[in-house]
Amino acid sequence: MSSVPENLQHVRQQVEDACARAGRSPAGLTLIAVSKTFPTESIREAVACGQTHFGESRVQEAVPKIEALPGSLHWHFIGGVQRNKVRKILQNFEIIHAIDSLRLASYTDEVAKELGVFPKIFLQVNIGDEPSKGGFAVEALRQEMASLLQLKRLDVSGLMCIPPAGESPEESRPWFVKLRELRDSLENEFCVKLDGLSMGMSGDFEIAIEEGATCVRVGSSIFGNRAYRVDGELG
Ligand SMILES: *Cc1c(COP(=O)(O)O)cnc(C)c1O
Description:
TIM Barrel; 9 helices; globular; eight-stranded parallel sheet; alpha/beta; 42% helix
């Protein structure tokens, strides 16, 4: 099995190549190394190679790692957000990727006010309309966008999705296009800037970059295969 530094080097090359194909600057793209299920030592290896953005999906697992590592790192909460975890998430993470209802957003706004923080968030969209997945339905998001934008503590970066599992990476492309087009139409309709598109994982991040991703969330291609599933989460 390859090492974390080798894997990271390879993924960075793939990111660069995808940016070149799309005529984009790599500066507009954040590679989030998804370290869920992997130990602090693996994260340190990536940090030694200059990696600064990391993603975790369970609070209890992440907090000890965050506390053991340099304070200069950027932590992204990419998992489903339970209401009773909001405070801990806001205390430990800079960016939340999966705000998936107006109710959760309002509550997060309230807690952020108490804590005196202005968190960056992504709104998760259930882009393939799958019953098994979280996220706003497209129409619900349109209807609730005005209310979401009134939550003054939340810095809405943009949209996030996890497309339906396909047989090949290419199958993700139409879903990434759909998320980008939804973002564009919300920007027009609500006169708001929503620069961020959090989309693309190990299997399809190159395609996500070609379709405009600003954050790709890459786990197994950097850290190796996960030995166990995270409850209620992907792989
Ligand atoms: C685990 C996870 C990832 C990373 O998945 P890989 O296939 O290992 O790259 C990305 N996004 C979310 C939301 C995840 O839960």
